[in-house]
Amino acid sequence: MKEGIRRSILILLLPACNPGRVPVSPPTIPSLPQPAEPRGVSTWNFSYRSDTLRYRITRSATVDSQSDSGIHREVATNSSHEVLSLSVSADTVRYIATVDSFSTTTQGLIGPVQSVVLPVQISGVVDSATVRTDSAATNLTSSTCDPVQSSLTGDVNSLLIKVPTELVPGLSWRDSTVRTVCYAMIPMKAIVIRRFSVVGAAEYDGASTILVQRTDSISAHGEGRQQQHQLIVDVAGTGGATYHLSQERSSVVHLTTNQDLDFAIRGSGRTSQFRETVKEEFSLLP
């Protein structure tokens, strides 16, 4: 069972979701990041526009587990190409997101990863309240869980953030999401609370950007079957992110994220625990 779970965690590389068998409740609100010294105080207006955006996304994940023979480490890297088509009307953004390239490599004992069928596409709306995904991508069950689709949904939630109309250094806000994610064929309810803070003006790749920092508090719970085992999975963790927003491109031009997640998986009278560290980089292509 441990090998199967480690493989599932590494394949997914999701922006995931309390160790131990406790009910999932809203996580503790994380403290705000301390803004760096701003490079010139200013005020910026930022909004999305109708456009087609292409992103290159790279991920790396390390999973550490403890057994009688010592600590075991598994490593996976993933790269994908995703397209975001945006249609903007007033303060509402309708999006279509597509993955047309998705590849994963692993190091360790978990062996080759499963193949995926591409392209994978989802759609939804970003309005004044939240990022909403159409029902086909949210009503996931053990028979319909698709790890690539679930990963794409998380990417959209990371890239299409709700930003106040006027941004100034030191401004902070928060949002939260409750959504279904997949671990292997196990659907999980994930609660993510995010806190944002505007740092100030910055540069990325020679262009002026607005630097925004984010901290996350994450929890998730799910139950399902894998390899004839009935499993209960609980996950808790924290994370952070750094955004470069471009007024010229009306989009996120660069995003890096990191997460530290603790997994507790119960099945067949045993509890397995894993620690996963994930790093992601999103780069807007010309």
Task: Summarize the structure in words.
- By secondary structure, this protein is mainly β.
- It is 8% helix and 59% strand.
- It has 2 helices and 13 strands; from the N terminus they run H-E-E-E-E-E-E-H-E-E-E-E-E-E-E.
- The chain has helices spanning 2-12, 147-159; strands spanning 44-45, 51-67, 70-89, 92-107, 120-126, 131-133, 166-167, 172-183, 186-204, 207-226, 229-246, 251-267, 270-284.
- The strands form 2 sheets. Strands 6-5-4-3-2-13-12-11-10-9-8 form an 11-stranded antiparallel beta sheet. Strands 1-7 form a two-stranded antiparallel ribbon.
- A hairpin with a 2-residue loop joins strand 12 and strand 13 (270-284).
- The longest helix has 13 residues, at 147-159.
- 41% of the residues are buried.
- The model is unreliable at 1-26 and 32-36 (pLDDT under 50).
Short description:
It is built from 2 helices and 13 strands. It is mainly beta and 286 residues long. The chain is globular.
